[in-house]
Sequence to fold (610 residues):
Amino acid sequence: MELSAWIFMLAVWALIIGMTGYCFYKLMFSGADLSPEEEQAREEFHTL
Amino acid sequence: MSKERWASRLGLVLAMAGNAVGLGNFLRFPAEAARNGGGAFLIPYIVALLVLGLPLMWVEWSMGRYGGQFGHHSAPGILQSMGRSRLWKYFGVFGLWTNLVVAAYYLYVESWCLSYAGYAIGGGFLGMEQADVKNFFDELVGNKPNSVWAISAWGMGIFAVCIVINVYILSRGLAKGIELVAKVGMPLLILFAAILAIRGLTINPTTDPEAVTSALEGLNFVWEPKFDSLSNPAVWLAAAGQIFFTLSIGLGSIHCYASYLRQADDVALTGATTAWTNEFCEVVLGGTILLPIAVAYLGLESVRGEVAGGSGFSLGFMVFPSLFNKWGWFAPVAGFLWFGLLFFAAITSSLAMGQPVMAFLQDEFGFTRRRSAIAFGALLLPLAIPVAILTDASFQGEFNYWAGTFALVVFALAETILFAWIFGMGRGWAEIARGAEHKVPRVFYFVIKYVTPLLLFVILLLYTFQPAGMVEGKEKGWEPYVESLFTGKSPPEWEWSGSGMIGKLMHKDLALPSTASDEQREYMENLKLARTVDRAAMVLTFAFFATLVYWAWRKRRAEGRA
Fold:
């Protein structure tokens, strides 16, 4: 594999994996509470 | 009025990502990248993501959440709640019609994935060569040479099973149906893809006598940058098209999913998470499976020919099972993983096509969840049956072009104009920013207002008026015309391309060489007839939804809810 291909692939991978990871991190640990409806839906979901 | 909600933000993001991640992520992206400049293709691709993909994601999420506060969960109501003219709800018909029409053929392809996955894990493909796998496919879909009929009893049976599975999941609702499938399906999809990518990348002729070259040669084919391709406008158009279709924009399904959010939910972050998750599945996973494995066993030149049309479909369905046979005991598992991941990619998308139609019936006609899911299945049948019994060049191909390609651009352009210019960019920006933990960079205010609609308009124009641009017997599209502007060379004589809207209307893609046999000529005539019937069916379906919308708003006015 050519060096230029490695550079392009790793640079794009780093950008995409970095952004995906960052977004998921913020999403999971943003601390926003669920609304009562969402709490209820979640309870129903877990009692399947 | 629907009181359904998502059970968790993670579930919502996985459902939205599942909606976006489809077959194109694994079959179309690597082929498009390889034929449009390799690594250099990622430059226009990332640019298109920033000026088209992400802005449209935020627009559709915000529109959905905004419409949801008025109890609208499908495009007609959502668009109507943002525009003053009564006509906006009829533009919203696109958000129902495209979902139904696309689902009619998408579910058929989904049923192929299910058939292949089951056949693979049962060891059915063991010992098969490429020609045998091609025969298996033809038997599954009932293909016969020079016949518009393509009837296969077991193919239709599995198609019916797939429709029933989708209707059943949809009838369970958002949290227990769609969200549960996404929470199981998306991690499995990523796991299956990662296993195949790792196994694929270790193919090396020194350890695998069946390999003709290293898998890294295939990875190089996808990623080696060819910078001269950047001067070709067709490459930029291909990148914009890939971003547009990979994110499931312009369907109306994102609006529908987002309409179940509460008003303080963060659409900026969840929208961006969905888009980047899709990119992870497409670029990192999708770019690492199909071509590296194919090139390692078939050689670069052979694969180059296979993907010349910009699709890895024939590689994925007609060649891959025979290549997995070179992996010994692991072959049935690999086949199951490959078609299993394609099935999960497909079902999480097809569920998103059912929900807007269901939501419309629930909101406007008081249908229950179960009744609306059955109604979706019933509405699907008149379109799905011709897809199942006619050759893919007729109904399937036409649905894919008119509903799955052209209509998406029309709808996206209309909704962007509505959001940025009618509803107003100031209010639109406030909608995007509401509840957002991190503010979206201000530059996107101008991108959404000016760049995105302009770009969509250009794409629509280029799709509509597409020339063949024949150079030395090869179709080059707009390329020689743009080139002539800079070099002064005279462009080829204007001829409509069969891939453009006007050329399609004129059946230019069905042209036959003068040496064609009588049998081929008869086939083409029958195909034209089938396509005419198919177009009439699409117009009637659109008229049917428009009538329902008219009826629903009359009912709303009578009840004082308009």
Q: What stands out?
A: Chain B touches chain A at residues 3-11, 13, 38-40, 42, 46, 174-176, 179-180, 216-217, 219-220, 222-225, 262, 264-266, 269-270, 272-273, 276-277, 279-280, 283-284, 435, 437-438 (CB under 8 Å). Residues 231 and 353 of chain B are 37 Å apart (CA to CA).
